[in-house]
Amino acid sequence: MLINCTLNGRDTAIEAAATTRLSALLRETLGLTGTHVACDEGVCGSCTVLLDGSAARACLTLAGQCDGVAIETVEGVAAGETFETIADAFLRHNALQCGFCTPGFVTTVAAMLRDDARERLGDAEVEARISSVACRCTGYLPIVAAVRDLLGRDR
């Protein structure tokens, strides 16, 4: 099937089987390897991308679902102004360890920062969104601190 989408800000037409996982399409067909795949079951969040601005699991999304959708990968986030802000906060709070989960966190946090209702996001919701990405290195406290800082809530 021909999938017409906006990929990282560019109108794109991709030929793929409708049942191809978006994670495979991004990594294997398009060479966008920043989207990491770990569990391949939607549990770990390493493959999180933005679909029409909302965080979604690329390993659970079929290519056929992406026709007419704006897809933004960590490479797309990295090309924009939001990435530098996120990276600076993560560095300030030592929220980086091995880096495998980092693309999932970056896209998840980018979605939060772009959310029109970000000022109304309670601490519990921020922590729930952050916990949607599995990290085995940091224990989340530095990541939560970085996000609180980005949202202007650093204590």
**Assigned CATH architecture of the largest domain:** Roll
Low-confidence stretches: none
Query: What sequence of helices (H) and strands (E) makes up the elements?
Result: EEHEEEHHHHH
Category by helix and strand content: alpha+beta
Shape: globular
Into which percentage range does the β-strand content fall?
5-15%
In CATH, the homologous superfamily of the largest domain goes by the name Beta-grasp domain
Rg: 15 Å
For this structure, the CATH topology of the largest domain is Ubiquitin-like (UB roll)
Indicate how many domains the architecture comprises.
Answer: 2
The count of β-strands is 5
Describe this entry's structure for a reader:
With 155 residues, this protein is of the alpha+beta class. The protein has 2 domains: 2-76, Beta-grasp domain (Ubiquitin-like (UB roll)); 78-150, [2Fe-2S]-binding domain (DNA polymerase, domain 1, Orthogonal Bundle). Helices cover 36% and strands 15% of the residues. It contains 6 helices and 5 strands. The chain has helices at residues 22-29, 74-78, 81-92, 102-114, 123-130, 141-150; strands spanning 2-7, 10-15, 48-51, 54-57, 70-72. It has a 5-stranded mixed beta sheet. A hairpin with a 2-residue loop joins strand 1 (2-7) and strand 2. Helix 5 (123-130) packs across helix 6. The chain starts with a strand and ends in a 5-residue tail after the last helix. The model has no long low-confidence stretch (mean pLDDT 92).
